[in-house]
Amino acid sequence: MADSDFPMDNGASCVPIPPEEENRIVSELVKESELNLKEGNLYFVVSNRWFSSWQRYAGPCVGMLSTDEQSSNGQHADRVHSEIAARPGPIDNSDIISNENNCDGNSLDIYRMLEEGKDYVLVPQKVWEILLEWYKGGPALPRKLISQGVIQKQYSVEVYPLSLNVTDARDNSKSIVKLSKKATLSELYELVCKMKGVEQKKAHIWDYFNLKKNTLLSGSDQTLEDANLMMDQDILLEVSVDSDRSSHSSMDSMGNELALIPLEPPRSSVSIAGGPSMSNGHSTGSSFNLFQGSSASSSLISMDNRNGDVCRGERGGLAGLQNLGNTCFMNSALQCLVHTPPLVEYFLQDYSEEINMDNPLGMRGELALAFGDLLRKLWSSGRTAIPPRQFKGKLARFAPQFSGYNQHDSQELLAFLLDGLHEDLNRVKQKPYIEMKDSDGRPDEEVASECWKNHMARNDSLIVDVCQGQYKSTLVCPVCGKISITFDPFMYLSIPLPSTVTRTMTVTVFYGDGSGLPMPFTVNVLKQGCFRDLCTSLGTACCLKSDEMLLLAEVYDHKIFRYLENPLEQLASIKDDERIVAYRLKKGAWKTKLEIMHRDKMKSGEKLFGSPLVTYLVEDPQYGANIEAAVHKMLSPLRRAYSSTKFHDGKEDGFMSAGGNEQSSISSTECESSNLTTSCSEQEGTSGGESSFQLVLTNESCLNNEPIEKDSLIKPSQLIRVFLDWTDKEHELYDASFLRDLPEVHKAGFPAKKTRQEAISLFSCLEAFLTEEPLGPDDMWYCPRCKEHRQATKKLDLWKLPEILVFHLKRFSYSRYLKNKLDTFVNFPIHNLDLTKYVKTKDGQSYVYDLYAISNHYGGLGGGHYTAYAKLIDDNKWYHFDDSHVSPVTEAEIKSSAAYVLFYQRRSKAQMEGESQVPTGSHGK
User: Fold this and answer.
1) Residue 66: what pLDDT?
2) Predicted confidence band at 493 (pLDDT cuts at 50, 70, 90)?
3) Buried b / exposed e along 54-74 (16+ C-beta atoms within 10 A)
4) Which listed residue (81, 648, 831, 865) is catalytic?
5) CA atoms 558, 561, 565, 568: torsion sign
6) Catalytic-residue membership of 530
């Protein structure tokens, strides 16, 4: 491999090959690597700044995740590559290389928190080698492909190897080692001893998390990941005097003897998790203990919390969670769950009988045990913050997407955790096969009961008991009208903010019969809606009559680019920078559509301008006179009421534009009393005068030009296109400004100074969730009657609600070029959230809820921070959980625009009865 030291060679190593050939070779090598994925394959980190310049030169590379910085705004990004770009210089990774910690001989570091596809790209080894051959440069940044996950293997490139801080007990010197989290403890010993010049048999390495001895890391085949070692954490090296590895003593930095017997905590046969105690994934006991109350014996606290023993006098539930490196998202979700009353009651008791070790969809009980262990620590440690290392280690094993130290979404973690806990605690050991039946017009109550019974036959756990509800889903085929009704379970409700559901669109409406001036209308439509929805909203805005219809079209370069005639096509196909018009036409069996395009006749030539006009012709066959009459009729609203040096009657005022019906054609009386040099018959295009303008017949490509005379016979066609040539005379007669400057669908102006947005209610979010909408083009429904996939309409209704109801406010939106977060303030009730009117079943159950926890997100995407508010039910007080820091808050403080996930508990009938006996005004709103 070529030397990558700087300074870099400024020339290529060989004669350049054509850019399209470079692209073909690289694309084939990328495809080849994807077909041969295996652990240990090498990938190389390449600066996206350099790689995007190569893509501009050679073209986009299939299979490579990269965002071209020059087209990241999303406006006509596809045109960037059509421009001729210069061949890039040598590969230059200098902008992503960190100069810190690069002196230990390991692989070069890159800056932390870089984003793949934005800051860097990963190229397979063969791609790196060919790029290096063509361009030279560097330096090389090799990284290995690793596999993660227990249930489902996932391959990922370990861009950031595990970095550990080594403290040498002999002199307290500090150093850093970097190696894969998939490396074994034996490999760790080998690397540390080689770096320190120590014999392995004399070395003892401790897990020194928080600068406290936790566990002796005995050399074995256990991986660093399974040993729960975290990024940037400390490890302690002790060197014994004796050569015997099992010696009971060694010397510390002061020459004193140190006990080297592994200081594992005394292990009882009982675990605080209510199950076999888990030490690095190995079971050490089999009996269980039933705990009374919310505190556990201090002797059972694991080494992660040796200094967090039970404080008998302190209230439980007020412990924080240490941040292990961008784990605030996890801490926020966990604090909400460990303050969920039914979960607290369940996991503080013996749940051993419900652990399902054999469920292929579960985590062999390990996730439930790790969560239960963590919950017990939090409720028994007083106010001492807990490092959730063991839980994070288990989480990473079963959900590799949450491994590493990048920021993630607290709701995504919550969804995985609830589902994982359910499967680990599923009381159903053998899931039966059940064939679902169609509703076939049966009563909703019967179908809903049948669906819930079938669900419970396969899913029966604490999570189902308290967290799962049921909604009704109605699908309607737009072609045959087939109605399909299903009743599905849900664990939480992801409800949109209305501003993420609707879209503002501006469309210019033209009269197809020449009875009025064109007028732009701005309407709000569903983002996931279709052309039919846009027509409906426009029709309401422009007071469309019952015998009228709207024909939508996109105008580009002053021509009709396309007609939007499919009523079910998604509005997403219309971009914000496009210009859309609607032609208001009478309903009827029209035969011939007439398009009128406008050309300015200038000395230098002809130039298109303005928006085309569209109307329908009745007579058949068509002659030039018919076309001319139709054009005059369409232009009549644009006729000026004016005076000028050429056409005025002695007055010196300019032209006057009247609006609406007041802008009508000049009456015959007005014509007779005026001294216009152009007669009324000439203006109206009737016989007795020559036409005031020239019409030219053209074709679809607009290349054919055939002048039209009054007696010209027009070949029958469904669509006739003509040019209207404008001279000074036409501009004097008609005001062409109404045809110019069509507004864009949505004009993104400069962002105004941020002000507090208008608050919306939780109810309006819920109603947006329950609004009927068409399915997206990627989510078509297979109609059993049509035997084809159809873009059906979907309507959701709440059928039954659980005891614990979780609302996820969809604040984040993602697209190829834009990531956005809405900081809209959502006004949600703290007490007495009454959802009775939204629930379709009438089962006599209470559907009134009280808030008890909130997961908050502050800041923008990528750089935000998560916290939690949770209520201690025992003392009816709220607390703020910000990682390790816990502080009391007032009820008035918990409402903010940062609220992201809301947790509610249903009121019992006893609470409802007690509430009804409280005098009016004595409880909070």
Assistant:
1) 62
2) very high
3) bbbbbbbbeebebbbeebeee
4) 865
5) negative
6) no
